[in-house]
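Page 47, continued from p. 46.
Same chain as before, 340 aa.
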Amino acid sequence: MTTLQIIWFFLFFFFIIGYAILDGFDLGVGILHLFTRKKNERQILKKAIAPFWDGNEVWLITAGAVLFAAFPPVYATLFSSFYLPFMLLLLALIFRAVSLEFQHQLADPRWTATWDLAFGLASALPALLLGVALGNVLRGLPLEENAVFSGSFPKLLNPYALLAGAFSLVTFTMHGAAYLALKTDGPLQARMQKWLARSWIAFILLQIALVVSSFFQAGHLFENMLQNPFFWLFLILLWAAAVSIPVANKTGRFLRGFLASSLVILSLLGLAAVGLFPRLIPSLTNPKYSLTVYNASSTPKTLTVMLIITLIGMPLVIAYTAFIYRVFKGKTPMTAQDHY
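Result:
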């Protein structure tokens, strides 16, 4: 195994973590939008993510491009195995974008209500599907020789993957509530604090259930984990951040609460990366059929050229992201001409 292969393994997870943190909160806002009854408050929720949501999704596209270029067999196997779920994910993201543009085109309340519902459902579905996909990857896929997928869509909806999907849904809801507690004020902020407290409890319970299930369904994730210093780093960070969320919520330190929620997501995916490494897709059929950084990477020349491009482009993306969030920091106001 070369250093380049290791670098690209962690760069892929870097982009996945970036997407989960950034798009995670606006998916969570969309989920909470389903339970917001007042029209002006629904507008505030959408305006709170309006400058960011499309840029946040760039991280998912970048992660897909990295997978395609750095680990082509993994890309091919995932997209052939998860063809239907990924198509549903794509449709949901399209409808989510369309709903933000279409809902104010007519003054008919039924038209607005339809697209409001579409926005909420199209936010909840990706949060669920992404968790189901990750749950299947962590558990392993039925791969035969030459990475041939021998499963079916119904088998992807196994209890472990569905539990991971529910956990993802709740985690993004908690993350969205933490963001909205930071961006709103008054009665709406108080309701977001309640949503944050409730979703945090569900997060803790589902996390415990998922860890216990992982011992039985994905035992390979725990091989030599106790000897890995990164495991302890991410575990300590996870629980420190998780404990900080309700404390920050209760004391009104909402920025600290949102940052803690972000660290929770970073730690969870960091633990997933530690458990998987050097595998990218474990095989349920036979461990030797697993796709790893050893057998699924591109050529050294390809990885080198990509790394140079990434080292040039990634700071620009990070700088742009930081600039946008700095420009639109602070509470989200509502004016008469706003239609989000």
